[in-house]
Amino acid sequence: MRPGWTRDDIYRICERGYSLHQQGRYREAAVIFDGLIAVDPDNDYCRDALAAALLALGEAQRAVEQLDTVLAHDSGHLAAAPGASKLTSRWTTSLPPGQILKF
């Protein structure tokens, strides 16, 4: 975590991002969670939340990248594993034959 920030600071801003997501304001939520990841790159909750917002925005590849990072931190992460699996399955079935999906 960057100096000058506390867990409480991040939590309060996360609440705002969550609220925006619940209101369907996915782009704004994504901006908040992306910013929080810049402050605290190891915050898996923010990465999960960013992935959810990106998925809602139709940015599946970027969502998978966030979930892959979460799984790299913790391979048993229960929120990311099903999400990454579901995204991978959904996305790869829509790819043209022979196209490789990069993770």
Keywords for this entry:
disordered C terminus, globular, 69% helix, mainly alpha, 103 residues, 5 helices, Serine Threonine Protein Phosphatase 5, Tetratricopeptide repeat
How would you characterize this protein structure?
The chain is built from five helices and no strands. By secondary structure, the chain is mostly helical. It has one domain: Tetratricopeptide repeat domain (Serine Threonine Protein Phosphatase 5, Tetratricopeptide repeat, Alpha Horseshoe), CATH 1.25.40. The two termini are 25 Å apart. The relative contact order is 0.12.
CATH homologous superfamily placement: Tetratricopeptide repeat domain
Silhouette: globular
Which class of secondary structure composition applies to the elements?
A: mainly alpha
Q: How many angstroms separate the termini? A: 25 Å
Helix share bin: 55-70%
The average pLDDT value, as a whole number, equals 79
Tally of extended strands? Answer: 0
Describe the structure concisely.
With 103 residues, this protein is mainly alpha-helical. It is built from 5 helices and no strands.
Helices and strands, with pairings:
Elements: H1 7-22, H2 26-39, H3 44-56, H4 60-73, H5 80-93
Helix pairs in contact: 1-2, 2-3, 3-4, 4-5
